[in-house]
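REQUEST FORM: STRUCTURE PREDICTION
Request ID: SP-0412
Submitted by: Lab K.M.
Chain count: 1
Length (residues): 143
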Amino acid sequence: YGLGFTNSEVLLLLAKVRGFIAESSPHNMQKSLLYIMYTLKCSTQEMKSVVLEFPFLFYFPVPVLEERINKLLKDGISVDQIKEEPSVLELTVHIIQYRMQKLIAADFDVKNVSLKHLSGTKKDFEANYRKLQVKKERPLFNP
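STATUS: Completed
RESULT:
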């Protein structure tokens, strides 16, 4: 399935995934690509952007992606939110669940904002969580 990458885009992708090329199957990567494209209702251009930004998503088999997307949808996350922050699909279901519970417990409405607060490494998440806590505790008006 061609997304029309330029030579420089192909070189950029190869630089990002160089160690994983030998471990991947083009057929399985194509199945993952098509699954994400169909499930998230992505145009070819949107999918190309996702591939360039998050090439490791396509190393996950379809059942893993399906489990993660279904978990997010079941928890009230929209397809548009996932499309906006597809890196959330790199997280396991348990990590997604833990982070969502932690944010919800802090009165953060994950269903109506960007999923960037869920994404990233544990260190990134904890830093974002602390920032949200500070904003929550800070008064709206302080004369």
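NOTES: The mean pLDDT is 84.
Reviewed by: T.R.
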